[in-house]
Write a structure and sequence with these properties.
The protein is of the alpha/beta class and 266 residues long. 42% of the residues lie in helices and 15% in strands. The chain has a 6-stranded mixed beta sheet, with helices on both faces. A 3-stranded mixed beta sheet has the order 5-7-8. Helix 1 (31-46) links the parallel strand 2 and strand 3.
């Protein structure tokens, strides 16, 4: 498995766990972290034994966004990775899930700070769990900056527009219960247990037919901005072939035989 000094990769059964690992800086984004994330998403998509991905942070924080000290000219750690960015100018956007959507479900396990770039990256995940003391927010306007990681486009599509605009225009912080109330996250759990809950959800995903799971995720996103008629047509195109798979037959057989199904991505 891959990984860098600021991004660890490990397997938990059929789940690939990507951990932002720069706790001394509250997991502020760095070149090694971005390269590790980019490679982690590609690794998960390329490995058919991976059925879900969990994204989390080390040291009690999720991600505090861009390293503002480095942005101000103090230098960013991991300059040896600069060639990777030159080779792919979109690498950092793909890493932050702005320009890339993994085909496997991505579950966020948030503790502590999930602000600025952290909240932007969160919007690229599919299912979101947070410890009760977690903090969210898009602080860019307070710094005279723009949340260019996709938030002015995606946030209003994920939560009611009035809440999206308040978050974007005030730069204030939101606690986990507030974030859940407006629909930014789905679960609030006791501090220190977000990863455990995320892995529980991942295990439920992993027990389902992988071809069906990936087709359902793809259909949800590709039909989101379609008319109902176009969306229903696209759903049939995406979903009907799933019924002809060996996995679909195995699911029905296992149900009839009262046993767990054994799916083979076939």
């Amino acid at each position: 498995m891959g990984g860098t000094e600021h991004l660890t990769v490990q397997r938990e059964g059929a789940t690939l766990v990507l951990t932002l690992n720069r706790p001394e800086a509250k997991n502020a984004l760095s070149l090694p972290m971005l390269v590790g994330l980019h490679d982690g998403w590609l690794e998960a998509d390329a490995d058919d034994s991976v059925r879900s991905i969990v994204l989390t942070g080390a040291g009690g924080s999720f991600c505090s966004g861009m390293d503002l000290k480095a942005l101000a000219g103090a230098g960013m750690a991991g300059e040896e990775y600069r060639d990777r960015l030159k080779a792919d100018p979109d690498l950092h956007w793909k890493a932050m899930l702005r320009h890339h959507r993994p085909r496997k479900p991505v579950i966020a396990a948030v503790e502590g700070d999930c602000v600025a770039g952290g909240t932007e990256m969160l919007q690229g995940t599919d299912i979101r769990v947070a410890g009760e003391s977690a903090t969210f927010g898009l602080f860019e306007v307070k710094r005279g900056l723009f949340p260019i990681g996709g938030s002015t486009v995606r946030l209003q599509r994920q939560i009611p527009r009035t809440h999206a605009l308040e978050m974007l225009l005030t730069g204030r912080s939101y606690n986990a219960p507030e974030a859940a109330a407006i629909g930014l996250i789905g679960h609030v759990v006791p501090d220190g247990t977000a990863l455990t809950k995320a892995l529980e959800i991942a295990e439920r995903v992993n027990s389902c037919g992988p071809l069906a799971v990936e087709a359902v995720k793809a259909s949800v996103y590709e039909t989101a901005e379609m008319t109902e008629a176009d969306g229903l047509a696209a759903e049939l195109t995406r979903g009907w072939p799933v019924f002809g798979t060996a996995d679909a037959k195995e699911g029905a057989r296992a149900f009839a035989e009262k046993r767990p199904p054994v799916y083979k991505r076939a």
